[in-house]
Amino acid sequence: MKLTELHKAKTHSWLILERNNDMQNTHGSVNQYFIHSQYESMIMDPGGIELFSPMLAAILQHTELDKLTAVFASHQDPDIISTLGLWDKAVPNATLYAPALWDRFIDHFDLDNLKYEGINDDGGEIQLGGVRLRLLPAHYLHSAGNYHLYDPAAKILMSANVGSAIKTDSSSQFVEDFGQHIKHIEQFHRRWMPSNKAKDNWIARVKELDVDIIAPNHGKLYKGEQVQEFLDWFAKLDVGSAVR
């Protein structure tokens, strides 16, 4: 597996871990994103234990580990952060940006080296090698303390579980037909997104941004007109309403 580019500029690049179809269509599949500048890099929602080795190997093709200075964790699910203990040993001088709501839980990760920087409820910013990244509140979507990461220069919104599809029906990286994609996301969003008020607040925030790509934790990414199609669909969806 390797990291492939989503965005490249003089200042920095966005990359995603490319994987085979078998891995992409499993319940444990997580999209791993990596921002790389000349001087500093960051991994976002670093994934489960099975993804540590391939992600580490892929990163080493692009930079030295001492330049990986930041780890971002959007929320607490084990599929996206159970490798924190391993990254703690691999990048001992990095800072972990995670919800301040975790203050009384962070010790349970047994972190010896990562410096924990709690994100306040109203979000904030990360400066990464001169690149300004915004931490966008996404509370209750689906975690009580939840954040997305927006890059104004790349026009990419890393949206954690919002927009996620657990399984998809092709190897394409981006949604090609939103109408066909709905069947992969509807049940997930009805069940895992509990609050219509929180959903509406998030949509209002995102509509103020210039977004070319929505990059979720799972499944395909949304690009161009698919971004607006997803936002319009999500606005109409009655969430917190699915019970199996």
TrEMBL record:
<dbReference type="InterPro" id="IPR036866">
    <property type="entry name" value="RibonucZ/Hydroxyglut_hydro"/>
</dbReference>
<dbReference type="InterPro" id="IPR045761">
    <property type="entry name" value="ODP_dom"/>
</dbReference>
<protein>
    <recommendedName>
        <fullName>Metallo-beta-lactamase domain-containing protein</fullName>
    </recommendedName>
</protein>
<dbReference type="InterPro" id="IPR001279">
    <property type="entry name" value="Metallo-B-lactamas"/>
</dbReference>
<feature type="domain" description="Metallo-beta-lactamase">
    <location>
        <begin position="29"/>
        <end position="218"/>
    </location>
</feature>
<dbReference type="Pfam" id="PF19583">
    <property type="entry name" value="ODP"/>
</dbReference>
